[in-house]
Specification:
alpha+beta; disordered N terminus; four-stranded antiparallel β-sheet; five-stranded mixed β-sheet; 14 strands; 50% helix
Length: 518
């Protein structure tokens, strides 16, 4: 409901509400009184007006307001210095005497009660009917006498005759204890202390949890504290289909009109309607913003997809166009190698370098072709059973680069893999180690819990901190002269084979987990 409160507040302050066309609380209450009969009338002035009995209604009235017959004793006399008591001095002296006199009467009444309780002296005839009515300990004298086992104070008839001398907070217990059915005092017993304070102040409307009390203005001159009592259910029925409601006043309630302890505000139905209206508006705004971000995101995806398509097309064209001239170049390089025996040492070295560069060019073309096949999902796995991993790794390393230092298994194992793709993966990792790392390069074999692992390690430090960043397509290091596809293809092939690739930055190492050894 916090949002509803905010919405209604903004709406109200902006002048959007048709507040002027809605009936105010005075109009509504007048109409309500005309169409409903009150449950009863409580005339507090008549019930508690005699002998200063109002002190039993609320603690704020517990100090008696005494009136002196001889005002000259307090005013018009002289002080200790012989000066006439007038003005403020007169009032201060009267107030002091008033409190002293009140305390004296209270002490004397309490002393009389103690004589009755402990010495058996009979109470005066008007003991219970004369002020003060409350003991300094907080209870009424009528309540105290009704709890002792003494006639007539413990009799129902006596209690019924003196209900107006009990504190309001004591009435519920007394009515229940003596089985007294009195509709007026039963209603009074349900009034809280804060509600009774409003009544004492003469508030025109008092709203309790069960009743609505409206001041009887026609009795104002005779009984200023006379109230009509209506059932709260009747009030709620009258407000059910309206746009406003009468609720207890709170600081967090939006009040159109504040009357007594009640607040004339928008009904929950009205609040929900505004909440619904503003919710739709906010949802519409959120929807527009979401669609805007979604369209930007889709546009970005489409642009990236188009860029990848252009890159893939370029690779396809290059792969297709380069294969024929590269094949011819390799044949020429082989012919030069055959005829290089009669050349000098420098010329032979030149022919070797030309052949090496031609093979590198062929490798670039094969990598491009493999990448295009991989991204289209055309890799075909052909698994082969190999009896010795140590022998296979040794032959592979010697063929690729005799400088590779191999660390075989202490106990040789067989393994099963696609030999073509395994060679492809290891070749890429080893070539990256020589190109981007530092020698020596190690090829280590491990078998942990029957799982075969192959590690490629060099002594350099990688520019990348994570495997994910370096395996993105077209991502390469600052020293790379390739296209940044090698590790991307390696990761793809390993995922296809069900292998796992792990990475360590310093020193740079890649570990392949191939699965169970055989």
């Amino acid at each position: 409901m916090g949002f509803a409160y905010l919405a209604l507040t903004l709406n109200h302050r902006a002048g959007f509400l048709f507040h002027d066309s809605s009936p105010d609380v005075g109009q509504f209450l007048h109409s309500f009184q005309e169409s409903h009969s009150p449950r009863s009338e409580i005339n507090f002035s008549a019930l508690y007006g005699g002998n200063d009995q109002f002190e039993v209604l609320h603690p704020m009235l517990s100090v008696q307001k005494m009136h002196f017959k001889d005002q000259g004793a307090a005013c018009g006399g002289v002080d200790l210095e012989g000066r006439q008591k007038t003005g403020e001095a007169c009032q201060m002296t009267a107030a002091a005497n008033e409190v002293e006199f009140s305390d004296e009467r209270s002490s004397k009444k309490r002393e009389t009660l103690d004589q009755y309780l402990y010495e058996g002296i009979k109470l005066p005839a008007h003991f219970i009917d004369t002020p003060p009515f409350l003991d300094s300990r907080g209870f009424s004298y009528a309540y105290f006498l009704s709890r002792i086992d003494a006639v007539p104070y413990n009799e129902k008839s006596w209690v019924e005759q003196h209900l107006s001398l009990f504190k309001v907070s004591e009435l519920s217990e007394i009515l229940r204890k003596y089985h007294i059915v009195d509709p007026i005092y039963s209603l009074i017993s349900q009034i809280s202390e804060s509600e009774m304070e409003e009544i004492i102040r003469g508030t025109s409307v008092v709203l309790s949890k069960d009743f609505l009390l409206i001041k009887n203005e026609s009795q104002l001159g005779f009984s200023p504290l006379s109230y009509w009592v209506y059932d709260l259910s009747e009030l709620q029925d009258s407000l059910k289909m309206g746009e406003n409601e009468l609720v207890p006043y709170r600081s967090d309630v939006l009040c159109l009109q504040h009357v007594g302890n009640a607040c004339w505000t928008y009904s929950s139905r009205q609040a929900i309607s505004y909440l619904y209206k503003y919710s739709l508006l906010i949802l519409a705004i959120v929807g527009v913003v979401f669609l805007a971000f979604l369209s930007l995101y889709i546009k970005n995806l489409l642009e990236r997809n188009r860029e990848q398509q252009r890159q893939r097309l370029s690779l396809q064209v290059l792969s297709h166009e380069f294969r024929t001239p590269v094949s011819s170049l390799l044949l020429l390089a082989e012919q030069l190698s055959v005829r290089s025996q009669g050349l000098g040492e420098k010329d032979q070295d030149l022919v070797t370098r030309i052949s090496s560069e031609a093979y590198k060019l062929q490798r670039i073309i094969e990598v491009s072709r493999t990448y295009l096949q991989a991204t289209n999902g055309h890799i075909q796995m052909k698994m082969h059973e190999m009896p010795s991993i140590n022998s296979w790794i040794s032959d592979f390393a010697h063929e690729l680069n005799p400088k590779i230092q191999c660390q075989p298994l202490d106990r040789d194992q067989g393994f099963k893999s696609d030999i073509f793709w395994l060679r492809f993966i290891l070749s890429n990792l080893i070539q990256n180690a020589y190109l981007h790392g530092a020698e020596p390069v190690f090829l280590r074999l491990k078998c942990e819990h029957g799982v075969l692992k192959i590690s490629v390690e060099d002594q350099g430090v990688s520019e990348f901190s994570s495997l994910k960043s370096m395996t993105e397509p077209f991502v390469k290091s600052s020293r790379s002269q390739g296209m940044g596809l090698g590790l991307n293809i390696v990761q793809f092939v390993m995922d296809e084979c069900g292998y796992k690739l792990e990475f360590s930055q310093s020193p740079t190492s890649f570990t392949l987990t191939l699965g169970k050894a055989t």
